[in-house]
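Our example copied in:
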Amino acid sequence: MQRRVFWQSLLLSSLLIWGCRVGAITDDRGVDIVLSQPAQRVAAISTFGADLLLTLGITPAAVTSFGPLSRPDFLAADLEDVPIIGSRAQINMELLSEVDPDLILAIRRYTEKSADQLTRIAPYMALDLVTLEDSYRGVQVAGAAVGKSAAALELNSTFAQTLSEFQARAPGGVSAALLVTSSDTPFIYYDHFISAQLLTYLNATNIAGASPHPSQRLPLGYRISLEALLEADPDVIFLFASNKKRAFTLNPIWPYLKAVRNQRVYEVGHHWKEAAGPQARALILREMAHRLYPEVFPLPSLPPSIQSRPYR
């Protein structure tokens, strides 16, 4: 009920603030981004930016690489001719300048240190993009910046409705863990990270629990020992993409985990790490729902390159 109230309030405030004008748009630093007209050439220093722009029918002026991939695999077909300007954490400023954008749409935690350089090139909008609430707000303010407020509002409204429908159908009674890294000790995500937050909307328990610092977005999680993982013993484990062998799966404890014994460990696509975009969050919700409750939710039709698969 609290989430529904939040969402209704967000919808109302979005309509009042962003429905009719561009003007000054406040980003997640609290900085006003002043635009005299809707941005047309947007450089996306985030998969979120590329995801949102394409969903709104706009081709980005530039994009960043996506993990080990040059472009996000679930968007690659629509980004084939779009210039790549580095990674989200290491931008090639010369290439960015050559693109001549009229807006830079970026993840705050990777780019705020370079704000002065970025602002000299174009107006720079920094978004947090950690929580689901960040995703809703990011879609709305970025949509306003490109003159697509109504379409952005509809994207958020549709997803909120889908969440409500999935939550009503999800049986619950299942626990899960979202793990990443290739080291001996995996990193596990707290409840407030978007992909983990979706677990709660599916009535599943994230064994990592809530952050001990609820007012802070960072850290996103913590390192968990295999002993602690075995003690919590989740029903389902989601392994985020890695281009290296996961050393923690070689730990003698690993085979004793319930999820391993029951063959409910799944490797998931890179988009699970950057889940704020409208396409990414919808893909994750549908696939997560199926893996948690295969008897209730069908396996969504996804390209083989991004579809989750049992870990062997």
Q: What stands out?
A: The first strand starts at residue 23 and ends at 26. Residues 14-20 have pLDDT under 50 and may be disordered.
